[in-house]
Design a protein that fits this description.
Helix content is 67%, strand content 2%. α2 runs parallel beside α8, α8 runs antiparallel to α9 and α9 packs parallel to α13. It has 306 residues and is mainly alpha-helical.
Length: 306
């Protein structure tokens, strides 16, 4: 199989090549790794050129810095703030909202570029620029994963700094920050998977509005209702533990780390009895399955006429 060929008008050629520099506009062979790198650069330039990207990131930064205010409600000199409370605050209370609040911002970032490509008819330009649909899709997944993970990492760092300052101002002892690291890493991985899920669902539905509604309503309501129905079916009561976002909540929230009195309530909100490592594996596998379905759709469906 021959390497893909592309025309790069900015490539001056290799001065060390005895044949001399390649004339601008002359087709040159590009290997798969180089094609993927260029595709990722193309996707990142597309994403970073949008004003909405930086507006959303600014909102995320501000809200992350306000995380310490939620910790102030529990912080005082007599009652030290626990690492569980800090980890939950950094993840933006996934127990209360079923998905971290940061998801709603990453949802916009992840669905925008792919929906624009498919709906407005510019995907053909993307495919020509990056040597094929498969390369374009892989680059979208990679850039989406890095973007989601990086936003979550920055949010977790800013949230941790905000919490540390808030606890110090309240005169309370600092939490065990070493115990916050592992939940924060799980949160970062969760957000990377979420970005890939958002992109893949947008590809499958070919409609940004429908994708946003599904990704908002299914974790909040749909999966809860499905889990309740499964409990009434013979032999399927335990299946609800393995549903994607039930496993995702179990990945984010280690119920065993809660105090004994708080565990029943936390367990009811999580909705899955899977151990945290198992839940992480289930959520990652579900992400891979949806991403594979998105690849199938992306490679076989044509774009909508503008």
């Amino acid at each position: 199989m021959t390497a893909p060929v592309t025309t790069d008008p900015t490539d001056p050629g290799d001065p060390a090549d005895p044949r001399g520099a390649t004339a601008p506009g002359v087709p040159v062979a590009v290997g798969p790794a180089e094609a993927f790198r260029r595709a990722c650069r193309y996707e990142w330039r597309h994403l970073s050129a949008l004003r909405s990207t930086w507006i959303l990131l600014g909102v995320v930064a501000v809200l992350s810095l306000l995380t310490g205010l939620t910790i102030l409600l529990d912080a005082d000199a007599q009652h030290p703030v626990g690492s569980v409370a800090v980890a939950d605050a950094i993840a933006w209370s996934p127990l209360a909202t079923q998905v971290p609040a940061l998801c709603f911002f990453v949802l916009v970032l992840a669905t925008g570029p792919v929906s624009t490509d498919l709906v407005k008819g510019v995907a053909r330009t993307t495919w020509l620029a990056v040597n094929g649909r498969g390369t374009a899709y892989a680059a979208k997944c990679a850039v989406g994963w890095v973007t989601g993970s990086a936003v979550a990492a920055a949010s977790a760092l800013l949230g941790s700094l905000s919490c540390a300052v808030a606890v110090a101002v309240a005169g309370a002892p600092q939490p065990a920050w070493s115990e916050v690291l592992t939940p924060a890493v799980r949160f970062i991985g969760w957000m990377g998977c979420w970005a890939v899920l958002c992109m893949a669902v947008a590809v499958l539905l070919r409609n940004r509005t429908a994708a946003v509604l599904l990704l908002v309503l299914w974790p909040l309501l749909g999966e809860r209702l499905a889990g309740m129905l499964l409990r009434y079916l013979p032999g399927l009561a335990g299946v609800s533990d393995w549903l994607p976002f039930a496993a995702g909540r179990a990945m984010l929230t280690d119920v065993s780390a809660y105090a004994a009195d708080d565990r029943p309530f936390a367990q009811a909100l999580v909705g899955s009895h899977l151990a945290t490592p198992v839940a992480a594996g289930v959520f990652c596998l579900c992400t891979a399955a949806v991403a594979a379905a998105g690849l199938w759709a992306y490679r076989r469906r044509d774009v909508t006429a503008a």
